[in-house]
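Pasting as-is:
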Amino acid sequence: MKKIEAIIRKTKFEDVKEALLDVDIEWFSYYDVRGIGKSRQGRIYRGVVYDTSTIERTLISIVVRDKNTEKTVEAIIKSAQTGEIGDGRIFVIPIADAIRIRTGERGDIALYNAEQEK
């Protein structure tokens, strides 16, 4: 199992969500986050541009089976990429175990229902 964390532009969230659904990733968490990077966003308030030191992004967190890792990463890249500085980052982290609290099931089966197996 792998945990995939992707930091993406807020404006690309809907595109990434649709791409993940298209590759059968139906469960994930997301958070509004701020960070500091090379890209700076200017904010306009009443016609005045303010430079900010933080960048607003969305963090998507997904735990997938090993066999779904590459298609998930590819879906995020294709849907989040603009080709400009500030598109974000993807991190792939190994997961030792997963446990479904309701049933006590462990491992891959804790991520998905057996009847959904493809």
